[in-house]
Amino acid sequence: MTTDIIEINNFVVLIDSTDAQEAEIYKCSFDQDMIGITFYDSGNVEVHVEYESGSQVLKNSKGIAMSFLGNDTVSFSHKISQSEPLNTVSIFSTLEHIHQLQDQEKSLFETYLHGLLYSSNAFELGPQVTMTAEMHLAISKIFQTPFQNSTRLLFLKSQILELLSHYFAQIEEKPQASFPQGEQEQLFQAKEIILQNMNQPPTLTELSKLVGMNNSKLNKNFKQLFGMPVFKYLQAQRLHKAYRLLKEEELSVQEVAWNVGYDSLSSFSNAFQKQYGCRPSALTA
């Protein structure tokens, strides 16, 4: 695990990455009340949360942005899967610092994270949203920036502010869905099946049978929880993978298209431009 820790205007930012071939476990805790917002650009992490009154297990995977509150009695144990490289960006602030922000900035946290700011619990989850293409793009820029020293810090500040802006905008656009624990587990299982079979995904009917939920309910509840219907989510994740391959691997556009499950190069190119605002060939020039 490689962790880059920077401080931006009293916010602590952790930029984590690993491509280890074996599962990794690392632990952490806080020394005061903290709010965290984590963006899972890629990778899968199982987080065991222990606190005085109980415990929780969170299964966080790529494409999710989530927030939480934790105090000094909470401990976190992260088990990072070796199934694919991990790239995450986490933004932390003390409650004290948030309450001291200027009115305009403070109002954002009070509007969208009110339940965390005024919670009496040791640990509490806040809003979770599906990451947009703009969020993925901002994180890609964070990991790939050529800037150094003070120039890099200035650039990272701009990207962190962009991530926060997109996160709050997603919360505003998406009513927070609430499902019984069993149904929520079925929906997360459906998401994992999609992510693990992007090249040859099951049909909606096959997916429904695999998770034990009928077609219409699965598609409707999936959209409520993850922000988009099943196969729109599949397309977004395919294109995100394609973006990473184009930036990080020496592959042709055609090879990338095949890699993410597109038989038609023109269909791939058009979908990529719609999501990222440019043709895939622009990333290989």
From TrEMBL:
Keyword Transcription regulation attached: yes
Residue ranges of every copy of the HTH araC/xylS-type domain listed in the record: 188-285
Molecular function via GO: DNA-binding transcription factor activity; sequence-specific DNA binding
Pfam (any one): HTH_18
Keywords: DNA-binding, Transcription, Transcription regulation
Regions annotated as coiled coil: none
Keyword Cell membrane on entry: no
UniProt name for this protein: Helix-turn-helix transcriptional regulator
Annotated organism of origin: Flammeovirga aprica JL-4
Lineage: Bacteria, Pseudomonadati, Bacteroidota, Cytophagia, Cytophagales
